[in-house]
Amino acid sequence: MTTIIPSSPPVVLQLDRLSRRRAGRHAVRDLDLSLHAGQVLGLLGVNGAGKSTTLSMIAGALRPDSGGIRLCGEDFLEHPELARSRIGWLPERAPVWAELSVSEHLDAHGRLRGLKGGTLRAARERVLDRLDLQPLARRLAGVLSQGQRQRLGLACALLHRPGLLVLDEPANALDPVQAVALRGLIREQAAAGTAVILSTHLLAEVTAVCDRVAILHDGCLRHDGPVQADDHQALERTFFEIAMHGDAAARAA
């Protein structure tokens, strides 16, 4: 009788010695990180730790000074067009085209992603329903509240069913009910095989939805390991050790 060993999920993202300088200093230095399909990675760090710079490079908005990025096994730096179909990105402040309605905004975003016709209409209706945006479909994006803009930005990130979802402080301006709904959405995406990177200042968000956590400090990776739902205090201790002691904490570990 042949024993079938289940294969591990494919690697969606691979960072190799990724570095980027900003304003004359290293914002990110020699970062090695990988992410598998269906995995939710929490990215933590104090302000200035390099989180947003890292996410911008992963999303293709910034080019690294050195190092490599592989997306689904392909060289992302040589083929930046891969971002259109494979990455969904929600920056910390979701950008909007103020003069377009919510539906028009999604249609424009979808066309940039290569969607058209019935495929685009179906994708638009799906995310409008999933993000509870149907009542706002005809409202101009420019008059939305910050929380509504955040939900629209998330809808844009999900519109084309990306294999990698990059979220930078996605709970910004969301009320408690919407924040809980966001957790459910992240779990839903992971269950469908999407790899998710969640950058947040809220440790509770990480223990609620992430199965792994990476902590940056001064642009360097100081911790990378699994996280358990009931492990909030342990994560808090690790985070504050690194935040307060930096290099000394890393050497002690």
From TrEMBL:
Database matches in InterPro entries: AAA+_ATPase, ABC_transporter-like_ATP-bd, ABC_transporter-like_CS, P-loop_NTPase
A Pfam family assignment: ABC_tran
CDD domains per the UniProt record, alphabetical: ABC_DR_subfamily_A (cd03230)
Domain ABC transporter, first and last residues per copy: 13-243
Keywords from the named record: ATP-binding, Nucleotide-binding, Transport
Molecular function via GO: ATP binding; ATP hydrolysis activity
Homology family: Belongs to the ABC transporter superfamily.
Protein name in UniProt: Multidrug ABC transporter ATPase
Organism the protein comes from: Rhodanobacter fulvus Jip2
